[in-house]
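hiii so um. not sure if this is the right channel but i have a protein structure encoded as tokens and i wanna go backwards to a sequence. like what aa goes where. can anyone help
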């Protein structure tokens, strides 16, 4: 049956390949009532109930393997349970489930009900939760018992009174329904609920580098945009075991641990951990024979520092990266150690993959690849005109052409939706330039680009150079106000433990940048700090650094 499963995804799309076998045409073809839970998971369960869907293990040594037949059964039981507790079509349910397998039962059950899942991370505090409850109008939640999140939810509920049901997974708490006990009370007899392809399906809060998190709303067709993610970026076949490193609260989970991988008929690997320990992750990858792997560059950096000598990763046949720009040094070292090329891609919470080093192409280390054939993508200047190769422009998506997988808008936020959807384009707020071969190279957020001494400077290229210096653990490059020059380049740096901040080190780093890149890009200001300000998802808040600098200048 493996061969039949290898083409199962073609039920939901049309595709075309060029003479080299590289994807050059892709269009989802959903039915009016397309629903991922019924039409993908339940259908695979009907065809091959014993096909492996998930291999799950945790730090405590527990292990579970689930088939598609079991995924259907448990999501049906969960749908019965949620319905019995008053959750219905259109309700918004917050899921804070870390990497517990119950997340997958629950998200499928919500799709089956036509309710809206609102995944969130367990790093949230009471204030964050209250903001999300009020912003989205949450009426129920399903939370992990293996952290403090239930306590924070209860504290938020002292001020917010619309939560009518609370389920706790892997734990017990007064006033909460025990998910694991309760689900066993149901028999799994579930009739299909009619939903439609344009119905809302998921809301993710996206923590940008400015302002409060916005609510990104995706509809029932969103999973189909990820066929191309799994098949033509992760290079997944139906007998693969794929691991994307992401907690269920992040959008990366929808990219790499759920939709595209299951549409491709593959199994997903889930390692339930809290603290990232490189050796532990390498051990479980070795033990369970993970075949395809995706993680942000930081994870690869730690793997390289760990050294791969003691691990057998021979089952790993493909590796991909996204989430932050890839530095050529990491690419080259990983290739030396494993013989695998790191295939980078770029997208946002608002989109699926926008550009990628697709299967069958030769990657250029540090490039985000070529535009996805799912979209009509342009690089435009501030007046909306296309820029020539080599010039920096904003990445935009033509919304006059089909754009499956693009968000429906920012939920309850017309102002921000209009700011990013206008003039026939969705504006990503990210800037890049295109080389003569059609590869895109990331520059920065539109609000992060530094205009100094008449030059436009992208922070990433300077950060990349600094990161290669052994003294630099982390860094953020911003434009700092300067009374004479207007704006100068500033580097805010956290040093590695082997180095101490000093005037000598500052000069060494400035000279290092001057030698490695155009001299005008060197940081005239170097500030050493113990930690960088970050969003909850770990993105550096350059806006906060800029605001502090402005404040200092105004006080001077």
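sure thing!! here u go:
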């Amino acid at each position: 049956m493996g061969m039949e499963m290898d083409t199962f995804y073609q039920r939901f799309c049309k595709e075309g390949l060029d003479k080299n076998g590289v994807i050059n045409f892709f269009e989802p073809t959903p039915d009016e009532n397309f629903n991922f839970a019924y039409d993908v998971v339940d259908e695979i369960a009907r065809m091959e109930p014993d096909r492996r869907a998930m291999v799950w293990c945790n730090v405590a040594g527990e292990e579970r393997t689930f088939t598609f037949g079991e995924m259907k059964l448990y999501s049906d039981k969960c749908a019965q349970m949620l319905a019995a507790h008053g959750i219905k079509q259109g309700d918004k349910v917050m899921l804070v489930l870390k990497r517990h397998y119950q997340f997958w039962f629950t998200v499928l059950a919500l799709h089956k009900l036509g309710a809206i899942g609102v995944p969130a991370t367990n790093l949230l505090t009471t204030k964050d939760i209250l903001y999300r409850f009020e912003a989205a109008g949450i009426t129920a939640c399903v939370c992990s018992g293996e952290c403090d999140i239930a306590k924070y939810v209860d504290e938020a509920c002292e001020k917010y009174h619309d939560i009518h049901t609370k389920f706790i997974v892997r734990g017990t708490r007064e006033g909460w329904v025990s998910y694991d006990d309760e689900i066993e009370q149901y028999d799994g007899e579930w009739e299909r609920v009619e939903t439609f392809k344009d119905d809302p399906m998921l809301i993710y809060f996206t923590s940008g580098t400015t302002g409060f998190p916005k609510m990104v709303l995706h509809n029932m067709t969103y999973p189909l945009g990820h066929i191309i993610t799994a098949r033509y970026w992760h290079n997944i076949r139906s007998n693969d075991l794929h691991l994307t490193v992401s907690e269920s609260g992040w959008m990366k989970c929808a990219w790499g641990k759920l939709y595209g991988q299951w549409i491709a008929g593959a199994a997903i690997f889930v390692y339930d951990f809290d603290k990232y320990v490189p050796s532990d992750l390498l051990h479980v990858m070795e033990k369970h024979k993970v075949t395809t792997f995706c993680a942000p560059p930081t994870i690869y950096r730690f793997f390289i520092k760990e050294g791969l000598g003691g691990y057998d990763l021979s089952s790993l046949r493909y590796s991909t990266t996204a989430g932050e720009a890839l530095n050529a040094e990491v690419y080259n070292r990983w290739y030396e150690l494993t013989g695998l090329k790191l295939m980078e891609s770029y997208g946002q919470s608002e989109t699926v993959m926008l550009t990628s080093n697709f299967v069958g192409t030769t990657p250029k280390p540090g490039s985000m690849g070529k535009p996805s054939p799912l979209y009509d993508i342009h690089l435009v200047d501030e007046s909306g005109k296309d820029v020539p190769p080599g010039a920096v422009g904003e990445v935009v998506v033509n919304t006059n052409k089909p754009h499956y997988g693009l968000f429906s808008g920012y939920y309850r936020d017309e102002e921000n939706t209009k700011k990013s959807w206008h003039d026939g384009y969705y504006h990503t707020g990210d800037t890049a330039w295109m080389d003569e071969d059609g590869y895109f190279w990331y520059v920065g957020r539109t609000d992060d680009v530094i205009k100094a001494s008449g030059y436009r400077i992208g922070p990433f290229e300077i950060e990349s150079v600094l990161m290669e210096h052994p003294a630099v653990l982390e860094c953020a490059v911003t434009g700092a106000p300067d009374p004479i020059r207007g704006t100068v380049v500033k580097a805010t740096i956290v040093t590695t433990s082997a180095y101490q901040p000093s005037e000598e080190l500052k000069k060494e780093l400035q000279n290092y940048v001057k030698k490695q890149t155009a001299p005008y890009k060197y940081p005239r200001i170097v500030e050493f700090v113990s930690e960088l300000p970050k969003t909850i998802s770990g993105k550096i808040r350059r806006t906060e650094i800029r605001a502090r600098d402005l404040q200092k200048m105004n006080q001077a």
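oh and Residues 68-84 form the longest helix (17 residues).
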